Amino acid sequence: MGGELSYVLSKLPMLSTSDYASVVSMNIFVALLCACIVIGHLLEENRWVNESITALLIGLCTGVVILLMSRGKSSHLLVFSEDLFFIYLLPPIIFNAGFQVKKKQFFVNFMTITLFGAVGTLISCSVITFGVMQIFKRMDIGKALEIGDYLAIGAIFAATDSVCTLQVLNQDETPLLYSLVFGEGVVNDATSVVLFNAIQSFDLKQIDHRIGLHFIGNFLYLFVASTLLGVLAGLLSAYIIKKLYIGRHSTDREVALMMLMAYLSYILAELWYLSGILTVFFCGIVMSHYTWHNVTESSRITTKHAFATLSFVLETFIFLYVGMDALDIEKWRFVSDRPKTSVAVSSVLLGLVLAGRAAFVFPLSFLSNLTKKSPSERISFREQVIIWWAGLMRGAVSMALAYNQFTMSGHTELRTNAIMITSTISVVLVSTMVFGLMTKPLIRFLLPVTHPPTSINIIGNIDSCHNSPKSITVPFLGGSQDSENDLDVNEIHRPNSIRALLTTPTHTVHRLWRKFDNTFMRPVFGGRGFVPVAPSSPTDQSGVQQWQ
Amino acid sequence: MGGELSYVLSKLPMLSTSDYASVVSMNIFVALLCACIVIGHLLEENRWVNESITALLIGLCTGVVILLMSRGKSSHLLVFSEDLFFIYLLPPIIFNAGFQVKKKQFFVNFMTITLFGAVGTLISCSVITFGVMQIFKRMDIGKALEIGDYLAIGAIFAATDSVCTLQVLNQDETPLLYSLVFGEGVVNDATSVVLFNAIQSFDLKQIDHRIGLHFIGNFLYLFVASTLLGVLAGLLSAYIIKKLYIGRHSTDREVALMMLMAYLSYILAELWYLSGILTVFFCGIVMSHYTWHNVTESSRITTKHAFATLSFVLETFIFLYVGMDALDIEKWRFVSDRPKTSVAVSSVLLGLVLAGRAAFVFPLSFLSNLTKKSPSERISFREQVIIWWAGLMRGAVSMALAYNQFTMSGHTELRTNAIMITSTISVVLVSTMVFGLMTKPLIRFLLPVTHPPTSINIIGNIDSCHNSPKSITVPFLGGSQDSENDLDVNEIHRPNSIRALLTTPTHTVHRLWRKFDNTFMRPVFGGRGFVPVAPSSPTDQSGVQQWQ
């Protein structure tokens, strides 16, 4: 009988392996991801290496093996896709960062972060663009590059890579530095979108003061609109889950709804040409403040760890991918005849990245310090050095931008473009490896006493594991007594200088916000202490009623 | 300064919205998924509707809206892709089913399940193929179809859709029926792969007894190899996590490793032309028996709910998608001139599906009952009716197979092929809606006393939420005292008839397995009670050491 079912069935099971080559690549990729996780675990106690460098090195090694096996024809399994990166890989990482960020640190330093992210990026971009124009014109590759390319190079290398920052800075060890550098990376994105919009809508031939005003107006619109969209999405999810009490029937629905609403906010922002990164980041913050407290206990644990896991896997994926892509033979072939040019270009770029970042970190830190009352709140010089250093890494975002500017869907035939791609790859590799490897030891060297790691974190983590995402370990918006006391202590010192006058608004805003939150927001949207929890665990109840 | 950064930056942020249309579709899709979840929650207490029907209806309505808005040009947002379905959507669903399945029920009924899945599918396939050949030849569409098409139709409509089964049958209410129908769906897949392999390797001109033997041999090889691969992947994950004690450093790594290893097993099976569905199902079973007990408490909660959530979202996605795809105007245009033919074809197919399933459920149940000792273990006639009825649904798998057979990458120009596609869609819609809507009431009507839902499930769920995935509510392989007592009771009745002699092996195998498991397997691979848990929750410890 079996034979009767003729060869025409042949197509049926084949469709699950319709593209054999892609199944092979996926196997290798997933196996490598597993390897990265296991090796990352084994190297956990090593004080130099971090997970991203492990993944990068494994990717590089795999690239070499593939290159040798394919006899120099190909080194990567998948073509680098910007859509894959921006639509699927980046949103969960940024959302998780917002979900787990320490809200207190972030909002206390909000002004500084915005200053760094907006003004700092512009300064860095200008320095790099100007430097590249001056230096490349004296090299032989200058002829093929237009003014637009120089500006693009400035933008590509001005943006701090948020994903790299997540890997090298530790939120619990250095909360101030983490929130400054990572927050800057998030605001960066809004800056680049607004740059684009500003440039598109104005006549660039007539540069006058109005352009500056328009630019500021656009930036504010984009910043506010993106933030608002994220906040609204978060509040909507909190309201739906609180009102419908979805956990009564199914824990899975709550988790699914949180995931989907967060993602929806990101793609809505993309749809409306806003900054999706900013939106999803604020959506994460609002969700951790309201929604997370409205769901069942098991949903809380699940969301906290599932989002972190997803983010972790995607980060590893990105670094593995960048590592494998680095050896793309197609681009290196153009460069191989004149290796000195490529090395020179890479060195110039790396130097300009260093200079561009220094050009805004130290002056802006100085400005920021002027507004701070107590010496303990100021950014010390050593911390400035770390901020400068930790933000130097360029990662997958730079790669994606470079591919977009200098290639047509991943391929290029122009020698200059190939040099730019390989130089970008070199800068990404060198900055991630060298700066990445050095950051942990640098922090330990520069800030040895201030943050004794063990004692703080044992408490911090036990607390956070049980009651909240990490953010609530130091409650800021949570309205707990601790944070209230903190602030009262600060306010005992009445304004007695210009700096103090400038500081007070932050705390006043904070107190007003907490009052507003407690009186209006939390009764509607839930949040810690505002959702009645039955004596028995909500988990039990969620299952019981499924059969009615 | 902003103006200076010229229009060339214009490309940069655009890459995140490179394909505006696809961003629009994704927005609609994600928003609809959210709507499905909320509406599904509101309809939870409705006794007729289930989640899949809600999603299907929402998909249909959206299809109508899009059809009207695009003025009859298009009705779906994404083209149905078999790769998307088989490589991304199906594996997590089947893995989760294995992860949460009641292992006792599954293994006690293993022989019956295999009988249904292997022999039953062949019978059903033959009935449908033969019926279609006889009837279609008398209709005008018979001319364009070849023998291969008939055989394909048989295969398309013979396979029970595991995803649909998950939605209509409830593991806790009707464990026997669930394990039989769902297990059959899993074994189905192996049958179709072996059919394909058998047909490819043999000369179909010479049909003799050797083909039957080869066929059986191939089926056994495929079944054993796929199962073994899944078991090995599961054991490897258990061993790695137990040996390295990954939870010590990071909960996220454990969850990531479980996810990735499960997925790796699926794509490895695809790579080696095995049955990925069977592999990932057994990987899920092994992971819930060993690996799940080796991870930290928070990883347990996370994996249990995250896998269930993922599976739930993907199931909803599939039904939404099938609903939206159903109105694909391209195919219906061919049919519109002669609507009677399409209705006739759909009716014939639906009738043959009913007949084909009846042709094996009742005879094979009779055979299976012959081997059962006590009347309580036998499949009653009423249960047979439910098995027959609940397995009638045809879903996304049938759609995917039909698209593969009758279209070229989603499009067709042949009228007969268009009729086959639209008929498949009709059968899928009608079977899912009608049979789906009727299953819950039918079960309530036919089995009113046997399973009082509330009392059983309150206990079952509280237990399962706290200690284990659902599977361990009725521990079979867990070595608990309860299941041991169960078996002793059974074995008090010494073999006193042919049926009893045939039953004993199952229980003997079970006891031997439990001994083997306790003596050899669990000390190596962990599992319940074999992983030392520190007095404080492992969650705390996992965080503490992250900074060293």
Automatic annotation (TrEMBL), chains A, B:
Cross-referenced Gene3D superfamilies, in alphabetical order? 6.10.140.1330
Does the keyword Membrane belong to this entry? yes
Cited InterPro entries: Cation/H_exchanger_CPA1, Cation/H_exchanger_TM, NaH_exchanger
Please classify the protein's predominant subcellular localization into one broad category. Answer: membrane
Q: Where are the transmembrane segments?
A: 20-40, 52-70, 77-95, 107-130, 150-170, 176-199, 219-241, 261-286, 306-324, 344-364, 385-406, 418-438
Q: How does it sit in the membrane?
A: Multi-pass membrane protein
Keyword flag Transmembrane: yes
| A molecular-function term among this protein's GO annotations | sodium:proton antiporter activity
Tell where it localizes.
Membrane
UniProt keywords (A-Z) are:
Ion transport, Membrane, Potassium, Potassium transport, Sodium, Sodium transport, Transmembrane, Transmembrane helix, Transport
Protein name as it appears in the record: Sodium/hydrogen exchanger 2
Source organism: Cajanus cajan (Pigeon pea)
